[in-house]
Structures are given as structure tokens and as C-alpha cells.
Records
---
Amino acid sequence: MSRILVTGGGGFLGSWLCEKLLEQGNEVICADNFYTGSKRNIYHLLADPRFELIRHDVTFPLYVEVDEIYNLACPASPIHYQKNPAQTVKTCVHGAINMLGLAKRTGAKILQSSTSEVYGDPEVHPQVEEYWGNVNPIGIRSCYDEGKRCAETLFNCYRMETNMPVKIVRIFNTYGPRMHPNDGRVVSNFILQALQNEDITIYGDGSQTRSFCYRDDLVDGLIRMMNTPDDVTGPINIGNPGEFTILQLAELVIKLTDSKSKLIKMPLPADDPKQRKPDITKAKKLLNWEPTTPLEEGLKKTIEYFDKLLAEDPEFCRR
Ligand code: NAD
Ligand code: UDP
């Protein structure tokens, strides 16, 4: 049994990770400031004596004794990370410094949840880890993209200076139950719109692509990465290589919900990447990992979740 810190453990991915780590017999400390997370994601874990919740902002130091740290704290949806951009940079950069400091003092292994956004609007397709990316340093997405890039730099600096066991994963678009209904990401938006027969908002002409990974596959990939030998540091792409246009996603959601929604076109936000698909050769080789949930199957489970949430708590779902 290990004692494991999950920062951002009250969020969409963090809460599933906490749950999985508890299932595997570990002690879990969840640190979250609930900026985008929700107590409802972890409420069911509070009774477990091996689970501990700390309201904490990672831009401040944290003093706990742990064996492993998963650093997930950071808003992930464009509308939320753009709302307070300087705070997003601080969360990425000061958060990384504080958690690396904690890992250094305790000797803990530490994993950084980086992102496909480090590739920006990529000119290499599919994206391989060796690609340096195409990021606008002063655009509306830069607080997140450059913050995450700087966090990768910090992880690498600590590794080079101290030989600490650091791990970096680059997560590609991930979806599933517990996504926040108001976080504006494409999967939750389309499902909620379709379930309520509202117009489906296509930004741009809908020809931009994304590759969607179901949350169980993603969490499995994170844990496998943490459990690699110390010389496996990454960065390693974790995502589902199945690539879809945003229009294809909208049509699939309409079909699966049997919705009467119409598609409407809205302006494409600045710097919106035109294409995204992970090359997961490294993950297959080093983690013996690849996703197993096809988009249609994952969407059905996510639709079921939002359908229930709409019935139980329409206020929480109001956008
Ligand atoms: P999320 O917004 O649901 O979760 C992030 C959590 O971090 C929330 O609980 C939030 O309250 C917390 N948080 C934010 N700032 C904090 C701070 N300063 N101190 C403490 N807690 C803070 O997002 P998610 O989708 O679960 O993403 C989790 C991680 O995975 C993030 O680091 C994100 O960048 C990364 N990621 C996610 C995706 C995806 O598609 N879901 C893609 C790429 C990378
Ligand atoms: N998108 C869209 N309609 C929406 C929300 C998003 O067409 O209601 C598009 C968005 O412009 C982007 C893609 O869907 O091209 C994925 O957006 P999301 O915010 O989920 O993630 P990211 O852009 O960070 O990959």
C-alpha cells in the first residue's frame, strides 16, 4: 500500500483516479481548491478511512508525507482556463514548483498531467512526442499551453539536477461521466444540447478534428506510467488515436440520443487547433497500454450519465 497525493482530485479525471487508487488498496490524499472540481465527484469516497480531502491551492506549498504524487490540479476546459489566465499560469508553474519541491523532500515519485496542447496548432500529424509544437505565446490559449510547457520544463530540470523519478504524460481530449456540465468542452456541450433538443453549437465549419479517449482508459494509462521503472520519464502521449471531425461527433451524438437538435455554426475561437491525433507508439511499447473503449461505447455511457444528471439536478446543468 502506498500513500498517494492526487492534486486536482476533485475534478473529472482526478476523482476517477482517486477512486481507482483506493480500489487498488492505497491511501489517497486529494488536494483541490474546487475551482472547477466538485465535491459531488468525491462525496462517495469521504467515508473511506483511507481517503483524505484537503482544500488546498497548489500555488501554495503543501506539507504532507507521501510516496507518489499525481499532479492534475489545473482547469482543463478553455472557458475556465481563460477566465483567469494569470491564475492558470500560476497553477501550472507555481503548482509544479511546489509539488516538485514536495517530491524532492519526501523522495516521492511524481507524475505531471501535461496535455496535447503543448503541440499547439500542430503542423505534424499525428503528433509524436519528439514534435516541439506550434504554440502562440500570447494567444488566448497560451496561459494553459505555455503554462503546461513550462511545467514540463520544470519537471525535466528537476530530473536533470537531482535524478528524481519524474513522469510526464501528455493527455489528449478525454471525456466521460463527471465532466462538469458547464465546462464548455465539446463532448459535454453536444450531449447536453442534444438531450434537451437545443441547437448544437459547431464552432467554425466543424472540419477540425479531435481524438477522444474514454476516462477509464486514460486513468489506466496514468497508473501504468507511474508504475514504470524510474528511467521512464516521458513525455508520453496518452490518448485514443481514433480521429473524428467535430461535425462527425455532433452527428454521432444526435444519432445516439435520437435528438431533434439542429446544427448551428458559431465563430471558431482564436488559435483553435485544426487537427489532433496522438501517436501512441511509445505508450504501447513502454506501458503496454492502448485504449479499449470505442467512441460510440464511451459516448453511450456519458449520455446515460448526463441524462440522469439532468433529471436529478437540472440547476447544476443549467448553462
Ligand atoms: P477538471 O477541471 O475537471 O479538474 C481539474 C481539477 O483541478 C479541479 O478539481 C480543480 O478544482 C482543480 N484545480 C484547479 N486549479 C487548482 C489549484 N490552483 N489548486 C488546487 N486545485 C486546483 O479537469 P480534468 O479534465 O479532470 O483535467 C485534469 C488534468 O488533466 C489537468 O491538469 C488537465 O490539464 C489535464 N488534461 C485533461 C484533458 C482532458 O481532456 N480532460 C486533456 C489534457 C490534459
Ligand atoms: N467546439 C465546438 N462546439 C462547442 C464546443 C467546442 O465546435 O460547443 C469545438 C472547439 O472549437 C474545438 C473542439 O470542439 O475545435 C474541441 O473543443 P474542446 O473545448 O472540447 O477542447 P480543445 O479545443 O481544448 O481540444
---
Amino acid sequence: MTKLPVKLGERSYEIFIGSGNLKQAGILVRSLSQAAKLVLVSNPTVFPLYGPQLVEVLQANGFTVNVALMPDGEAYKNMEEALKILDQAVDAGLERSSLLLALGGGVVGDLAGFVASVYQRGIEFIQIPTTLLAQVDSSVGGKVAVNHPRGKNFIGSFHQPRMVIIDSHTLDTLEDREYYAGLGEVVKYGVIYDEQFFAYMESNASAIRNRDKSCIESLIYRCCEIKAAIVEQDERELGIRAILNLGHTFGHSLEKLGSYQLYKHGEAVAAGTIMASCLAMALDLIDNRDLLRLLDLYKQLGIFPPRLAFSAEDIIAGMLNDKKTLNNRLHLVLPNGIGSCVIRDDIEQKQLITAIERSRHLELEFTK
Ligand code: NAD
Ligand code: GLY
């Protein structure tokens, strides 16, 4: 088991990474909390796989465990479901000193974290992420939220977990499409921050694609390390943290246009990153070689976003409704070579349309 600190003063915590960590979860959770009760939030897909084992080790460490399940899917990351979990927390008699645990992917983690942030003005919570995407991104950094009918993650808070327990063994049951979608967020770290990491993925693409255990753990470790370094500098996204949103402004619009069914989050991020890269190329921030490197890596890793079924105008309308606008101007993260990026707020609609159309053309070639 390896341990990675996230240094945020009094909100600091550790990320435990390893295979078989669930078995240690009872001891780990007890090591930081004297709470008597906790609510374990999960969903009907994940709970039968890992819930009973987790409940057992928690009970063995003296916790009274109440299980609260939300339906599976991004479409349920909403206030209605959050209220149901809040009701269950009230029924279970959760106190301010109690704990909430999130066992699942990013949807469960975001919603459970949001509930923890508002229940009795905030209680402690622990992330036990079970998808690749959640293990490399959403469980770390304290962004918690639910969607509003008008936009993704519109209702939320910054509420850091007290601990993140990553058991890479849980990925064994993850469907291929979810695994490859998660790799969309993994590639993001290489593009925005670390050319060497990007090159590592290029050199180990087939092992990663074939889910080699030690490669996966290295990926998880490096992604969490990069995310921690960025969040430590800018916990509330007033500056550098925004670079983690590469591809997200485009991607959130695609997810919403697809009614949160057509795209997996990581696929939408990959599609959005291709659009951002086309724009970056038009602005001479990257050259054709960089773009081909990115497309090739996606292909080698098995990341294939669904074909673009929406007009550029509709995508842009959705982007303007995203949270990342300031005074109605888009703030877009664009790659600046591989391993570095810039944030631009001076992009005209015409340039966006051209980039989206260029990416549509590329995707057609790419998905053949
Ligand atoms: P998800 O939570 O919907 O999980 C994907 C699917 O895999 C679900 O059907 C889930 O039940 C299933 N699953 C989970 N673990 C499994 C396992 N071990 N075995 C078998 N099936 C399993 O999707 P996701 O990709 O994990 O997360 C996407 C969400 O994360 C989005 O809502 C996105 O906005 C959010 N997100 C948040 C942040 C953040 O910083 N808070 C960052 C990135 C993404
Ligand atoms: N996933 C973006 C962030 O955590 O800031």
C-alpha cells in the first residue's frame, strides 16, 4: 500500500493506493474517527460487489453502518437523490461527529460528498472510489456537486474528504468502456502538465490497454500526485486548478446534449480535448505532430468517443451555459505543446465553430 499526502493545512488528508486496500478500510477509517455511526452511500451496481466486505470490516472496527443506495447513473446525480440520502442520514440519527462514506464511481462520490458538505453544515466524509476515473480524479480535491436541469455540477461545494482509499482490485469488475473512458482523464494529466507521463503512456500503451496491474497503479499514483500538487496550490480554483478542466467545457455540453446517456464523462472529456486541440492548432499553440500524437495515444489506449451527433452551434450554446464562463466569456484550457497548457478568454465564436468542425472531420477518420 502506498500513501500520498494532500497538503491543505487543517484540511490535509492521505490517499491510500494499493490492491486489496478494502480489507484495511475498517482500520484506516477508525484510525481517524471515533464516530459511532456512519452512512455508506453506494449504488445497486457497486454495493453487491464490494459493500458487504466493506460493511464487515467497518463493523469489526466498531462502526454502526447504515447503507444508503442511490440509483446508478449520471442522470441521478441530482437534488432529488441528494435529498433522499439526506433523509436517510436524518433517519439514521447521524450527528455532526458522524461519518459519510462514498463507495462507487464519480457519480456516487460527487453526490455523497455534496450531501456530507451540507448535512448539519458539513460532516466528514471518506472517498472509496471504484472506477478508474474516480481513482485518478474525482475522489481527490474536494469538488462535490449535483447537476441542475440547466447544467452539470451547478449545485455544489468544495468539501475535502478526510481520506481517500483506493483499491485497484475493484477495477477488475469495471466494464471495458468505463475503463477506457477513465483513461480519457488520465491522458489529460499528461497533456496539461507532464510530457514525460504522456510519453510513459505512449511507451506502455498496450499494457495499459490490457489493464496491466502494475501499470494501472503507476497511472493512479501519478495522476493523484499531479492532482494533489495542483489542488495544494489552488484549492478553490481561483487560478491554476482550472487547467484540470481541459476538454471539460466542450465535454459538459456534449454530456448534456446527449442527456447524460450518450457519452461517458471521460469520453466527453476526450472528445472535448480533441476540440480544444484543434483550436490550439489554429492558434499555433500546438502543431500537427502534437495533435497526431494525442489522437494516436487515444487510439492506442482504446479511447473512442462516440461520433459527434450535434451541431457546432448547439455545442457552443451549451458551453456558454457552463460554469466556466466569466462575464459571459468562455475561459478555455488549451494545450500549449504536450505537457503544458494556457487559459484563453479571447476566442471568437467563428474560431470555435471551425475547431469543432475540424474535430468532427478528425473523429470520422479516427473512429473508422
Ligand atoms: P460513474 O460513477 O457513473 O461510474 C460508471 C459506472 O461504473 C456506473 O454504472 C457504476 O455503477 C459502475 N461501477 C463503478 N465502480 C464499479 C466497479 N468497480 N465494478 C463495476 N462497475 C462499477 O462514472 P465515473 O466515470 O466514475 O464518474 C463520472 C462522474 O464524475 C461525473 O459525474 C463527473 O462529473 C464526475 N467528476 C467529478 C470530478 C470531481 O473533481 N469531483 C472530476 C471528474 C469527474
Ligand atoms: N476535475 C476538475 C477538478 O477537480 O478541479
